[in-house]
Write a structure and sequence with these properties.
Length: 286
């Protein structure tokens, strides 16, 4: 199965009412592990890269890793640039071969956001790529991008006009979700997802998924959240499994990096297969 477009993945999920894990990787180990997890679960997968990760590894090196690891993959996967307010980074990634981007102009006035998103959509189309858009900044700073407090939610009419005018392929609304770790189970506006889907028939991206309950995921996915973003959960799994392994290594005075890598990899694989099961994408590969 070759790498496919974001639209092909989310449109199928949207039609069949399941969610696809959209997982932010941080290095080569996590990239390989989430891909392996998708294969194990027979699930489509959206691999996401933050601007921070792109800059840390480099556009060319990161894309070369992606090409190498997906060359013989037999489940549908796609490469997505997450929350990016920097037009140059968007251009660099599209030119290199990313399949889609989230142009994050959510802190701009809606009209300016709309104007620039139209330009980004046109640029993406020239590469055969797709675009996710948003008009409200979702609370939480992640990888150096975001805001401490959520911006005011726009009316349904404003959101619908944005979607229809820009032609974005996926829309990420604010529904009481947040990036990072929730201090309590979030109080979510489920009806806003329903209203947006009924008005536009556009797949919805659910941000701030780490920490939501299985029931919340199920409800939101049934309403049209076809893309479910996971970033914090992977970081926590990566760091905590590393910490536990290193504490044990210290006690045993055994220092073998490949064993550490294998242990962390398995934790990330298990995280990925678990998410595919929770979101209903397991067994949906084509």
């Amino acid at each position: 199965m070759p790498v496919v477009s974001l639209k092909e993945i989310v449109d199928r999920a949207f039609a069949e009412k399941y969610g696809v894990p959209a997982i932010n990787i941080v290095n080569d180990l996590t990239l390989e592990a989430v891909l392996a997890g998708a294969v194990d679960a027979r699930s489509p997968l959206i691999v996401q890269t933050s601007v921070k990760t792109v800059k840390a590894i480099g556009v060319e090196v990161l894309f070369t890793m992606w090409e190498s690891m997906t060359r013989n993959i037999d489940v549908p996967v796609t490469l997505h640039l997450d929350h990016c307010p920097d037009r140059q980074v968007i251009s660099d990634c599209l030119k290199q071969g990313w399949n889609s981007v989230l142009f994050d102009a959510s802190t701009m006035p809606v009209d300016e956001n709309k104007r620039q998103t139209v330009e980004v959509v046109a640029e993406a189309r020239s590469y055969g790529a797709h675009v996710e858009g948003e008009i409200e900044a979702i609370q939480g700073v992640e990888d150096g991008i975001g805001v401490e407090t959520a911006t005011r939610r726009q009316s349904l009419d404003v959101a619908v006009d944005f979607i229809e005018t820009t032609g974005v392929d996926v829309f990420a609304p604010s529904i009481g979700n947040a990036h990072g770790v929730y201090s309590a189970t979030p109080d979510l506006d489920f009806e806003r997802v329903t209203d947006l889907v009924q008005a536009t028939s556009t797949p919805i991206a659910l941000h701030g998924g780490s920490g939501m309950t299985d029931d919340q995921f199920s409800d939101l996915i049934s309403r049209g959240c076809a893309k479910v973003n996971i970033s914090t959960a992977l970081k926590i799994e990566f760091m905590k499994s590393s910490l536990a392994f290193l504490k044990d290594a210290e006690q045993r005075d055994k220092w073998d990096p490949p064993s550490l890598f294998a242990n962390v990899r398995q934790h990330v694989v298990d995280l990925t297969t678990g998410l595919a099961g929770t979101f209903g994408s397991a067994g949906k590969a084509w």
